[in-house]
Design goal:
The chain contains 47 helices and 14 strands. It is of the alpha/beta class. The strands form four sheets. The chain has a five-stranded parallel β-sheet with strand order 9-10-11-8-12, sandwiched between helices.
């Protein structure tokens, strides 16, 4: 079988098609359906989707797809054409992020296993189980499964999809498996005493496959047992003749034994076909597995994997937090087993009742000891499901371990919030359901494929999620996110749909414990409200574990082992945290920067309530949390200028929510610490585009700080505030704070600080169009940096000189200064500054009339900026690359780049550069939509008027040309009217409008 167990589907029970699911059938002509509706695809894209479906859940390399699509002689443009087909196919099969049906996985693509049902996967599982049951003598079950499997075929596999290479081998494999299913089905029917049901079909199969000896064996036995012994012997002679004529071989041992048995008059199909004895129904113990009342949604892959684990291991424990659905998964996974005992330990209060609960499940009427239990199970083939072991884990481990040691055919499937720690135990953590990202949901179609949304819609009676109105779809996404994908929480929230609208439920879930109550009557007490579920888990903890959990609740996001020790230093952090991980209360997350930990959201909310009820402990934990992050940020600030800048930005991003929490606490309790932390974070806020947030924290920290703050600390905070204000084009405030910082740095005789402050004042002058003053300040900054021996500050001043030079129209000076800046930044590997140098060199080359050189520099800047998540660098590089594209006649690509740059600059709040992008867009749209182009120019002019900024000198000729072309096209008076239509508040609408236009021009 191809692919992992994670892509296999449940065969029986809980496997109904869910609304919004994709069905891709390859066992015949390709058939693609979404929510039961057929989806038509062009021929080549049909073949491409079929190839991905053949290996659903497994990455197929680009080379492999090319080989399978075109064979040994692909066209020279095959790879490019493939990517184009993939893009168009993805557009026809909608989805977002991890919910996309087709996903990029270097070095190829895959069809997401949890987003699509492929009949080949279900066929493989049915046949696998059916053939296994034949070997176990379970003929009625095997016949049912194999008959079901064969009904999935609608003709030759991929009959309408031309494929080559490995795909042909996959098709051959499927046809071989189909033949094995036929053979197993007929063997089971014969063993059940039904010889007459398959003679005609067997005659057809042996005619198509005359050299397949097992088919001849089955035909001969069917004829013999049906009273046609002479026909059976004649069939043997036909088989022998064909083998001798075609292969020069005599029949094999199996076929000869069948002939011998027919000649002896044997009438047992099992003996003739060498099949095992069947099991009598009377030997089987009645199943005690509870029946599911509602369907299990979004768990097909987990069910299939659990079944495989149970088949391969004798003790499998499903772990996870309360409410994640362990019990229902265990029941669903155990359903196909013919001999199951279900043991529910939830009602028990101590370990003394475990043996009695097992005995009751086994039908024993007297209270046995462990030895009697073992004798009762004996050598029977039994699957025992032991549910809710967490509160009796020690006793469960002793009893289960003892039974497994004495009962060789016993298998145990347990559910528990923590491992039982029995030798041979295999753990299968159960994850939360897939949640749609609320920010990406615009319609019901965006919910399809997300199990959490499908579950909520099913339980709330909403119908197919794909048909929900936009407002309801967004509300469902928010509800699922606030339930954190926890099935119990989702079902409790769905029950509220009788009382509130979906947006109202989403709003009320800001306090989930107040909303997620009143579960179904008859449910276990810990499953009738989310708070009760969490309290159940909390009560099972030792006192020290509860204390640690309360302390860890101050973390808003993920945290490291070091941070855990900082907020709770009284106990060994590794041991304490490890116990909470084992008990499914803390999740382990593997990130690019290492291992981190996160409290499950519901657990965190509850533990935070418990912490707040202990004021002294609460203050202690908050203080430790804030000081840890303050010290960490101050240490990391310098790393944001080195060669590993991208990784450091990721590190801070991982801690962003906790840094916010630390700033909040410090601002009210330690103003000096708040000022130091906010100042240490300025560069992070700059790199990630969080200008407004960084500026707000610095403003509040400076306002709250007492007069006795060290001058250099205040100067640094003022400079950082000025820098972020300048980036938001608030030049008056930026200039005032920068001058205060310069005064403090001068008084403190700090050459590096003086250089930074002068450079910032020069940058402000540059954007206001005061180029002479900007150059003078940059040169004075360079002198201060050289005097202080600060190589980075020297490079920064040189880069500023290069920037001002090309804006003012002096391309030669720009190249000279920017080249020197690269020389200074190269050794320390500051990728953010190197990106700026490449932007400056690219701009200088563009305005000097060398678009090829400009493109090289700007592409390098774009790659660097993406690598370090530098949004301003991306926005600038896209802007200038668009100008290159326009000069080279690539208008559509230029328009897409300009819209990307417009969107980024608007989100960043950089109105100065936003105005230039609007001017460039007006030039690109002059011939296509003159009224819109005029309105864009008007918006840019209004922006500059509000800021007091001028059009950059290098851009004035192009702007003059655009104005003249629009006046000529529209007429002077209509141009002025259209020009006045531009409004600052219309910028977001412009982004949406232009983004839609770029889609239609692709």
């Amino acid at each position: 079988m191809n692919g992992s167990s994670a892509v296999r589907y449940a065969v029986r029970g809980d496997n109904a098609i869910q609304p919004g699911e994709w069905n891709i059938d390859v066992l015949g002509p390709l058939d693609v359906r979404r929510a039961g509706r057929s989806v038509e695809l062009p021929p080549r894209r049909r073949s491409l989707l079929a190839l991905l479906a053949l290996r659903v859940g497994t990455m197929v390399t680009v080379d492999g797809l090319v080989d399978a699509l075109w064979g040994e002689d692909p066209p020279p443009t095959a790879v490019r054409t493939l990517h184009s087909h993939i893009a168009k196919l993805a557009a026809l099969l909608p989805g977002q992020g991890e919910g996309r049906l087709i996903q990029r996985r270097e070095p190829g693509y895959l069809l997401a296993a949890d987003a699509a049902r492929v009949d080949r996967v279900r066929f493989e599982e049915l046949v696998g189980d059916g053939l296994k049951y034949v070997t176990e003598g379970r003929y009625a079950e095997s016949a049912r499964l194999l008959e079901t499997a064969l009904t999935l075929w609608r003709g030759e596999a991929l009959a309408d999809c031309p494929v080559h290479g490995w795909a042909l081998a996959e098709v051959d494999y499927l046809h071989e498996l189909r033949l094995q299913a036929h053979e197993g089905l007929f063997a089971s029917r014969l063993a059940l005493g039904l010889p007459e049901t398959g003679v005609g079909e067997l005659e057809r199969l042996v005619a198509e496959h005359p050299l397949r000896e097992r088919l001849w064996e089955l035909l001969i036995v069917a004829l013999h047992l049906g009273g046609r012994t002479s026909d059976a012997l004649n069939a043997y002679r036909r088989a022998r003749h064909g083998l001798v004529e075609e292969l020069g071989l005599d029949p094999g041992e199996g076929l000869r034994q069948v002939e011998a048995g027919v000649l002896r008059g044997v009438t047992s199909a099992r003996e003739l076909l060498r099949l095992p004895a069947g099991r009598a129904v009377a030997d089987l113990r009645p199943s005690t597995v509870p029946q599911q009342v509602s369907t299990l949604i979004g768990r097909e892959s987990e069910i299939a994997e659990i079944r495989e684990l149970v088949a391969a291991h004798r003790l499998v424990t499903l772990t996870g937090p309360g409410g994640v659905g362990k019990t229902r998964l265990a029941i669903a996974a155990a359903r196909p087993a013919e001999d199951v005992a279900f043991v529910d330990l939830a009602p028990l209060h101590d370990g003394a009742g475990v043996v009695a609960a097992i005995a009751e499940a086994l039908g024993m009427h007297q209270l046995p000891d462990l030895g009697e239990l073992a004798r009762r199970v004996g050598r029977d083939r039994l699957l025992m499901v032991v549910d809710n072991c967490e509160h009796l884990a020690g006793e469960c481990a002793r009893i289960i371990g003892g039974l497994l040691g004495r009962c060789p055919r016993l298998r145990v499937l347990a559910t528990s919030q923590e491992a039982l720690r029995v030798s041979g135990e295999v753990l299968r953590p159960i994850p939360e359901l897939c949640v749609p990202p609320p920010a990406l949901v615009r319609s019901g179609a965006d919910l399809a494929g997300h199990a959490a949304a499908v579950l909520f819609a099913d339980r709330a009676g909403l119908g197919p999620v794909a048909e929900l109105p936009a407002a309801d779809a967004r509300a469902v996404a928010t509800i699922c996110a606030r339930c954190h994908g926890l099935p119990l929480a989702i079902e409790l929230a769905a029950a509220r749909a009788r009382m509130f609208t979906l947006p109202e439920i989403a709003q009320r879930l800001r306090d989930p414990f107040a909303v997620l109550t009143d579960g179904p009557r008859g449910a276990r007490p810990q499953h009738r409200a989310l708070r009760a579920t969490v309290e159940w888990s909390y009560r099972l903890l030792a006192a020290e574990e509860r204390r640690a959990l309360r302390r860890y609740s101050v973390f808003s996001g993920t945290f490291s082992l070091e941070a855990a020790g900082a907020v709770h230093p009284e106990t060994p952090r590794l041991e304490t945290l490890g116990r909470l991980v084992d008990k499914s209360l803390v999740k382990v997350e593997r990130t690019a920067t290492g291992t981190r930990y996160r409290l499950l959201p519901a657990i965190r909310e509850y533990a935070l309530d418990r912490l707040a009820a202990r004021p002294g402990e609460h203050v202690q934990a908050r203080r430790a949390h804030a000081r840890h992050h303050q010290g960490w940020a101050e240490r990391f600030e310098q790393r944001l200028q080195g060669p590993h800048l991208g990784a450091q930005v990721v590190r801070i991003a991982e801690r962003h929510e906790d840094v916010r929490a630390a700033l909040t606490w410090l601002t009210g309790n330690d103003p000096d610490g708040a000022l130091r932390l906010a100042a240490a974070l300025w560069r992070y806020h700059y790199l990630c585009g969080g200008y407004a947030e960084g500026r707000a924290w610095l403003s509040s920290a400076l306002a709250a700080c007492p007069p006795g703050v060290p001058p250099r600390t205040r100067a640094k905070a003022l400079w950082a505030l000025a820098r972020l204000a300048a980036l938001e084009c608030d030049y008056r405030e930026a200039d005032g704070h920068a001058r205060q910082a310069l005064e403090l740095y001068t008084r403190e005789d700090d050459p590096a600080g003086v250089a930074q402050a002068r450079a910032l004042l020069g940058a402000i002058a540059r954007e206001l169009g005061h180029y002479d003053r900007a150059l003078d300040l940059a040169r004075r900054s360079l002198a201060a940096a050289e005097r202080g021996g600060d190589r980075w500050a020297v490079g920064h001043a040189l880069q500023l000189l290069g920037f001002v030079s090309w804006l003012s129209g002096d391309g030669d000076a720009a190249v000279r200064y920017s080249g020197q800046a690269v020389h200074h930044f190269g050794p320390n590997g500051d990728r953010e500054r190197l990106a700026w140098c490449r932007i400056d060199l690219g701009a200088a080359a563009y305005y000097a009339g060398d678009p090829d050189a400009a493109a090289r520099h700007l592409h390098e800047a774009l790659v660097i900026s993406f690598g370090i998540r530098f949004r301003e660098g991306i926005a600038w590089a896209e802007n200038l690359l668009a100008l290159v594209d326009l000069r080279l006649g690539r208008d559509r690509q230029a328009l897409r780049r300009l819209v990307t740059s417009l969107k980024l600059h608007h989100e960043l709040g950089d109105r100065w550069r936003l105005a230039s992008v609007l001017d460039a867009l007006a030039g690109a749209l002059t011939a296509r939509d003159a009224p819109l182009a005029a309105a864009l120019l008007g918006t840019a002019a209004r922006l500059r008027d509000e800021m007091g900024a001028a059009v950059p000198a290098c851009e004035r000729p192009a702007l003059t040309g655009t104005r003249a072309a629009l006046a000529d096209r529209l007429g002077a008076e209509p141009f002025e009217r259209a020009h006045t239509m531009g409004r600052l508040q219309d910028v977001p609408a412009l982004v949406e409008r232009l983004a839609g236009r770029t889609e239609t021009t692709r």
